[in-house]
Inverse folding.
């Protein structure tokens, strides 16, 4: 875990809601793997700032979506303004890389009521290893613009409607059946409830949900990021709690206590 300074070198709006920041980072952070993230504080755009100007006091979690020419590409909503030259205090690497099965040929990424940002870093890695990727956008996520994603990614949008109806998408039994592994992100307001709904859905679609198949990628607010405060602890079945910041963010939903 390193506390480093990074510099925003380029800001690019990729669609009306999303901008990409190209971040020059310490060499240690260039070894980041899909699933890992940074905890950051952003300095205001000024050559003269002191420690109390860091914003916010509680760090934000930034998920990279790609690595281009040794620069980390970070996806942020367009609501916040960033400028080239801005300094970022970045702590990382947070979490463990997501592990894919050696035999995986198709991976399903599912974003339910939240942008798929935390899943996107897996896409260049998966495509580079000749693994097909399907991205399913459900609930609020149906509005997420995907023009910037590689054309090889199959994008499926679910239907709008009530909370239950938003868990419906075209050919869902087929897409779930073909997938060798599924990664899911849900809105942060109640991750346990929404992951439980996703688990119930897959239990209805398949006779049984095997281990090492359906993973929740958890995004609670991380206070310390180093396993000290236990604010990110998750209840597991028949074993000790696990911490998102040191052992996550991806956990096999069949091993979790979602009640
Ligand atoms: S954020 Fe403090 S233990 Fe995970």
């Amino acid at each position: 875990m390193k506390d480093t300074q990074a510099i925003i070198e380029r800001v690019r709006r990729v669609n009306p809601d999303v901008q990409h920041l190209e971040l020059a980072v310490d060499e240690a952070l260039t070894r980041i793997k899909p699933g890992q993230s940074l905890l950051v504080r952003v300095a205001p755009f000024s050559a003269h700032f002191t420690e109390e100007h860091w914003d916010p006091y509680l760090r934000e979690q930034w998920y990279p979506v790609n690595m281009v020419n040794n620069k980390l590409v970070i996806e942020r909503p367009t609501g916040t303004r960033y400028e080239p030259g801005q300094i970022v205090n970045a702590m990382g690497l947070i979490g463990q890389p997501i592990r894919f099965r050696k035999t995986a040929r198709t991976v399903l990424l599912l974003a339910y009521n939240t942008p798929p940002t935390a899943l996107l870093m897996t896409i260049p890695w998966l495509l580079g290893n000749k693994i097909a990727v399907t991205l399913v956008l459900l609930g609020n996520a149906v509005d997420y613009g995907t023009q910037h994603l590689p054309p090889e990614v199959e994008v499926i949008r679910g239907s709008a409607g009530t909370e239950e109806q938003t868990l419906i998408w075209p050919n869902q039994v087929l897409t779930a059946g073909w997938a060798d592994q599924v990664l899911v992100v849900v809105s942060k307001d109640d991750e346990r409830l929404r992951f439980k709904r996703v688990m119930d859905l897959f239990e209805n679609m398949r006779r049984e949900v095997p281990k090492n198949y359906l993973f929740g990628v958890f995004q609670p607010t991380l206070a310390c990021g180093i396993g000290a405060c236990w604010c990110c602890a998750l209840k597991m079945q028949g074993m000790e709690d696990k911490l998102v910041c040191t052992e996550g963010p991806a956990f096999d939903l069949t091993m979790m206590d979602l009640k």
Remarks:
- The chain has a mean pLDDT of 90.
- Residues 191-205 form the longest helix (15 residues).
- Helices lie at 117-120, 122-128, 172-178, 191-205, 244-247.
- Residues 222-225, 227-232, 243, 245 surround FE2/S2 (inorganic) cluster (CB under 6 Å).
